[in-house]
Amino acid sequence: MNHQFIHTDHAPSPIGPYSQATRAGDTIYVSGQIAINAETNELETDTLEQETERVLENLKQVLLAAGAKLENVVKCSIFISDMNNFGRINEVYGKYFQRNQPARETVEVAGLPKGVNVEISCIAVV
Q1: Contact at 8 Å (CB) between 56 and 92?
Q2: CATH label of the domain that carries residue 96
Q3: In which domain, by residue range, is 22 found?
Q4: Sign of the dihedral through C-alpha 42, 48, 53, 56
Q5: Name one GO cellular component term (predicted).
Q6: Which helix (H) or strand (E) element contains residue 28?
Q7: What is the pLDDT of residues 63-117, one digit of tens each?
Q8: How would DSSP label each residue in 53-86?
Q9: How many domains does the chain divide into?
């Protein structure tokens, strides 16, 4: 099967040896995104809500570069540093996935890249 590596300047460049996303046929696998602003290369972590919004905007930009939209997302994986933040993260997440609500899991982890509070990856089908 042929696959295509996706890159956009509208989302942060990978901070390791991976691509922003890979498209295999009609399926798009978006790597975990954190709250780095692609224009400034700075973290946006003033509030948990702002951080979560930046993460989801980064996901959206990678999906657009791959020819998809948030409506195409069928699965999300959410990694958070503190399960006590679940409600606040979930509230922002819900604004992005009002009509289509993909399958997902939310997992508390011991640490995330650059000390962020939330990282989200997704799978989309076009």
Answers
A1: yes
A2: 3.30.1330.40
A3: 3-125
A4: positive
A5: cytosol
A6: strand 27-33
A7: 999 999 999 999 999 999 999 999 999 999 999 999 889 999 999 999 999 999 9
A8: HHHHHHHHHHHHHTT--GGGEEEEEEEES-GGGH
A9: 1
